[in-house]
Amino acid sequence: MQQQSSLAEQTHMVQALLAQRRRADPAAQLFETHISWVLADGGLAYKFKKALRFDFLDFSTLEKRRFYCGEELRLNRRLAPEIYLDVSPVTGTLASPELEGTGTPIE
Hints:
The protein has 107 residues and is an alpha+beta fold. 32% of the residues lie in helices and 24% in strands. The protein has two helices and seven strands; from the N terminus they run H-E-E-E-E-E-H-E-E. Strand 1 and strand 2 (36-41) form a beta hairpin. The two termini are 14 Å apart.
């Protein structure tokens, strides 16, 4: 069974990714909504669904976030295929995450 990330752990992971990206691109930015984060750098954007559960959505598990990322890609790619490219895992550790890395996904 995979360990589920808490919102606090996800926040730590996203901040670590932002720090990594800013070392390569000082203009990298992080945007936050009530249900997601968007990390933008070098012409790409990576969207992360927060580990949340509300009456109107449930992103509480890694499996559910993966499913809904896939659904977002499927629906939005129809009208914007050049923007919605793929669903990619985050591997590594919360302190040292790796976008599109190999190994067991942590996000």
